[in-house]
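Sequence only, no structure available. Ideas?
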Amino acid sequence: MDPAQPYYQGAETPFVLPIDTNNHSVMELKTRKDFLEDGIKTWREWHTYRALAIIFFIIAIFTFQYSVFLSALFALIAGKAYGEHVKKNTMLNVIMKNKKMIVTR
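Reply:
I predicted one. Tokens follow.
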């Protein structure tokens, strides 16, 4: 065995770097103010969509006696609002709570 050659002669390990990022940064640094503005906006939308889902669900129940199609429309709107509520809930309570934060003074 030649001492200039490494012991392991296998394939090289692939190393992945972002080559074409379309002028976007790989890592985004946010100030506390920007982070809180995004979080508060998401929190407000979370509660708004929950209230809208409940309101449209109640309207769908009351309009069922007049028109099935109108009731179905309100039920679809309530379902869409509830879906947005679940999406914002996942964003706040699953993703944002598990995010690692670097705190500097």
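The chain has a mean pLDDT of 81.
Hope that gets you unstuck.
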